[in-house]
Each structure stands twice: as structure tokens, then as C-alpha cells.
Design a protein that fits this description.
Helix content: 10-25%
Low-confidence stretches: 1-48, 88-109, 177-196, 307-325
Distance between the termini: 27 Å
Number of strands: 18
Largest sheet: 12 strands, mixed
Radius of gyration: 21 Å
Order of helices and strands: HHHEHHEEEEEHHEEEEEEHEEHEEEEH
Shape: globular
Strand content: 25-35%
Structural class: alpha+beta
Mean pLDDT: 74
Oligomer: single chain
Strand order of the largest sheet: 7-8-9-10-11-1-2-3-4-5-6-12
Length: 416
């Protein structure tokens, strides 16, 4: 996708032993995080043929999206994501569990299978069916439907609940705690997490905000999405070096609400991300939709208790004392779709050469993602997806962007 605030993916998570251990491969796992940040709600176009609608310019359609004030809706969604990654099943366990020392907090596994910080990571690959509902900024619900179970994330006022029917476990937090954990809250920009887009409208707003003189914006006919008439808005990079070929947004002709968001990679093949509604209703959802009481016998984990053990088992700080380990703001190299964000690893943090002691599954995941590269900058490893790539040099520099590996190497060479 066009450049956005995804640059913060290299920042170190200091919430406990598991997260400090995760610094060993924060960049490659963060690549998944960025990809996960590109996840929301998805449907296939109906086969009834394209509707006949009045002509509209690209600028008029953008203004129509900006004027849309849809806050109430319910519907069904499919999410299809193909980042060209190894399976992400269990990646949440890597981030919050198997990275933690065995016998430490959490025993090397997440505190609760209902914890959103690990569960939502599963949306980073494959195809998923969701049911969604929203009634203003204080009430949202997302339910992930699985073969014989369902995972639900509910925000109602100050309460955030998550429930995993497969394990009969629930997670509860207040809005402020929930946002820190990755659940929705009052200040969130999306349904699925803090600063994480979760509807086609949120994806569209981010893409349009980044569109400028480096972007071609056109209207490419009409479509039917979830039984509704829509215009097709198409964004394409004018620059070389981006991993994005195009972004297509189906915009509801009546309300201006984006109904479908499709991101196609410059490498060709199926879409990296296909997000939209299969069914949608803009009426007010029933108030009971956002009610939740844990079933009898459910294990309930409170948000303020979830990582208490992690806080109690503090790791040794990197060299440099209390302030060490914090990353400085990134330097932006280039602009638009070919922008690269450059970081310097915190003092004492591992570099691309430092992989000793990684869990077996983590090392295998890195091996599948990484390619060794060299240049004027020296040597390093490029961690790849079909959308976001990251170069970690052997001397601790990090370059990230929705750009090709060659563009990353060029940026690293130019920074010398």
C-alpha cells in the first residue's frame, strides 16, 4: 500500500521478557504486522453485471468518500490475504509465548487464547469469514467464524471483551487497556485494533491520504458489491520500485462508503489483499449485538493481569541503561509509493547476524523469508513479502518499505 505510518513496525516492544526476546527478529515479524495492519473486511463481486450509474469524476468520487458519515452497519465479510509468507498459524504464540523463557511468565504460551494481541495475527494469511457490526465509535463487534468455533471481539462503552468458543476462554479489559492489547477502544481508528484499519473505508482513507503527485487516480466503471451499486476508484503508482501495482476501491453510489478494497502487487498474480462486504446493512444493529456475558465455566483473563508475570520477570537491560533500547524516529528516503523508512537498531539490540538462541520455529520462519544481500552499505538480509520488504544490515541499520528489495539496497547504499 502507499506509504503510511507503518514505519513504526521496527519499534521495540518493552512489555516484558517475551517482547524483549522478540527484538531478535522484530523486523521480519513486524513485516507480518504491517501486513496484518493491511487487514479488514472482504467480499466477491456479484455476477449480476455492472450497474448503469451517472458519470462521476475521480475528484468527485474522492469527495463523496470524504463526505460519507456511515457509523452504523452490520454484515458479513470475507478476508483474503496472500503475502507470499509461510503459514502464520501459531505466529501469535511466537510473538507472545514461545519467545518467552520456558517456565517464565505464561509458561512459554499466551496467557489466554482469547487475547486479541495473538488471535488477530491469524488474519495475516489465508481466507477468513467474519460477521461485523458497528453503532458509532463506542460499539463494535467482529466475529471470526471458524470450522467448529467462533472468536468474537466486542467493544461496548468502556468494556472490551474477547471470547474464544473453541477453548471457552474470555479476555476482558477496559477501553484503554484494550487498545494497548490490540483490541478496539474509543480512540481507535479501526475495528480490529489501535491505529489498525478494519473496514474498506478505513483502508481507502489511508490510501487516499497518501495519494499525491506520485499517484494516478481514475474512475474505472461500476460494479455490484454485496448487492449494492458502486463506482470503482483506481489508484496506481506513477513511480518505479513499488511493490504495489494498483489499489481498487468499490464505493457505494448512495452513501459514499467504500465496500471493497483490493490491493494488487506489481509482481502479478492474485491480490495481496481483498477486503469487502458480502452482505451489508446500514441500519442500526440491535443493542443486544454488543452485549456479552462469559458462558458458565469460561476461563476469564483480565487485561491488567494478562502480562503481570512478564512485568515481574524483567530481563537485563541492553547496554546504555534505562534509556537504551528505544528507537529514534525513522528517516524517510524518497517519497510517495517508493519511500523507504530507515532506522538504527537500539544500542545493544541484536543485528541480522545475531540469531543464536532463536526458537526452532522462529529460525525456520526467518530462513524462509530472508535473502542475503550486499552493496556499498556492506551486507545484510532482506526479509520479503509480496507487499512490504525490510532490509536489516549486519551493522544494525534497518530499511523498510512497500518497495522492491533492489529499491531497499539502493536506499541503503545512498545513505552511506
Amino acid at each position: 500500500m502507499a506509504p503510511n505510518d507503518s514505519a513504526h513496525i521496527a519499534e521495540e516492544d518493552d512489555l516484558g521478557t517475551g517482547r524483549r526476546r522478540a527484538a531478535r527478529y522484530a523486523v521480519p515479524v513486524a513485516v507480518i504486522g504491517v501486513a496484518a495492519v493491511t487487514i479488514g473486511l472482504v467480499p466477491a463481486l456479484a455476477a449480476a453485471g455492472d450497474p448503469s450509474l451517472p458519470k462521476i469524476s475521480a475528484q468527485e468520487l474522492i469527495e463523496k468518500i470524504a463526505a460519507s458519515d456511515t457509523e452504523r452497519l452490520s454484515g458479513s465479510v470475507r478476508i483474503s490475504t496472500d503475502l507470499g509468507l509461510p503459514s502464520l498459524a501459531g505466529l501469535g504464540d511466537l510473538a507472545g509465548g514461545s519467545l518467552a523463557p520456558k517456565g517464565g511468565a505464561g509458561g512459554g504460551s499466551p496467557d489466554s487464547t482469547a487475547d486479541p494481541s495473538s488471535k488477530l495475527m491469524e488474519l495475516g494469511s489465508g481466507t477468513h469469514t467474519l460477521r461485523v457490526a458497528a453503532d458509532g465509535p463506542d460499539k463494535q463487534r467482529v466475529s471470526i467464524q471458524e470450522d467448529a468455533a467462533e472468536y468474537s471481539l466486542i467493544h461496548n462503552g468502556d468494556d472490551v471483551w474477547a471470547y474464544d468458543s473453541a477453548s471457552n476462554e474470555a479476555f476482558h479489559a477496559t477501553s484503554s487497556e484494550g487498545t494497548e492489547k490490540g483490541a478496539p477502544g474509543k480512540k481507535d481508528k479501526g475495528l480490529s485494533g489501535k491505529d489498525v484499519p478494519a473496514t474498506p473505508k478505513e483502508f481507502a482513507e489511508q490510501a487516499l491520504a497518501a495519494a499525491g503527485d506520485t499517484t494516478s487516480v481514475t474512475v474505472d466503471g461500476t460494479a455490484r458489491v454485496a448487492g449494492r451499486e458502486a463506482y470503482r476508484l483506481v489508484l496506481k503508482p506513477k513511480q518505479a520500485g513499488s511493490t504495489v501495482e494498483s489499489v481498487k476501491i468499490a464505493v457505494d453510489a448512495e452513501t459514499g462508503t467504500p465496500l471493497k478494497f483490493t490491493l494488487a502487487p506489481s509482481s502479478g498474480g492474485k491480490a495481496v489483499l481483498d477486503v469487502g462486504f458480502t452482505k451489508v446493512d446500514f441500519g442500526k444493529p440491535a443493542a443486544s449485538t454488543f452485549d456479552f456475558t462469559p458462558p458458565k465455566g469460561a476461563k476469564v483473563t483480565q487485561g491488567d493481569e494478562a502480562h503481570e508475570g512478564d512485568r515481574a520477570v524483567r530481563p537485563e537491560l541492553p547496554k546504555g541503561g534505562e534509556g537504551a533500547g528505544k528507537t529514534a524516529p525513522p528517516t524517510v528516503i524518497g517519497k510517495g509509493w517508493s519511500a523507504v523508512y530507515a532506522f538504527t537498531s537500539p544500542e545493544g539490540a541484536p543485528t541480522a547476524k545475531d540469531t543464536a538462541g532463536l526458537p526452532k520455529e522462529a529460525q525456520g520462519f526467518l530462513d524462509a523469508l530472508g535473502d542475503k544481500v550486499t552493496g556499498k552499505f556492506g551486507s545484510g538480509t532482506v526479509y520479503k513479502t509480496r507487499l512490504v520488504n525490510a532490509l536489516m544490515t549486519d551493522d544494525g541499520k534497518i530499511y523498510v518499505g512497500a518497495v522492491t528489495p533492489a529499491t531497499l539496497v539502493k536506499a541503503a547504499d545512498g545513505a552511506q
